[in-house]
Specification:
Radius of gyration: 13 Å
Helix content: over 70%
Order of helices and strands: HHHHH
Structural class: mainly alpha
Low-confidence stretches: none
Number of domains: 1
Strand content: under 5%
Mean pLDDT: 95
Length: 88
C-alpha cells in the first residue's frame, strides 16, 4: 500500500489499508479478546474489545488524505506485527 500512496492512488491505498492492516488488526484483537466472535469483523467491537484497543482502531481507521494514511502506515503495520507475534 505504500506503493499506492507514492503513486497518489488514494482509492487503491485506502482499500489496501483496510484489507491488509485494519481488518487483520480487528480480527487478531477479536481472537485475543472475544474468540467466540472472531469472525464478526468490526461489528460489536464496542462490546468485545477493551476501550484502549477501540480507540487505537478508531484513530487508525479514519484517514483524512494520503499524507495522513502515509503517517499511520508504520504504526498500523507495527501494531499488526506485534499482535501476530503475540498470538503465535
Amino acid at each position: 500500500m505504500a506503493k499506492e500512496v507514492r503513486r497518489g492512488d488514494a482509492l487503491a491505498a485506502l482499500a489496501a489499508w483496510q484489507r491488509h492492516v485494519l481488518a487483520p488488526l480487528v480480527a487478531c484483537h477479536r481472537i485475543r479478546h472475544a474468540p467466540a466472535r472472531h469472525d464478526f469483523g468490526s461489528r460489536y467491537t464496542g462490546d468485545d474489545l477493551p476501550a484502549e484497543v477501540q480507540e487505537t482502531l478508531r484513530q487508525l481507521s479514519f484517514v483524512r488524505d494520503l499524507d495522513d494514511l502515509a503517517g499511520k502506515l508504520p504504526t498500523g503495520e507495527r501494531l499488526l506485527r506485534q499482535l501476530l507475534a503475540e498470538l503465535d
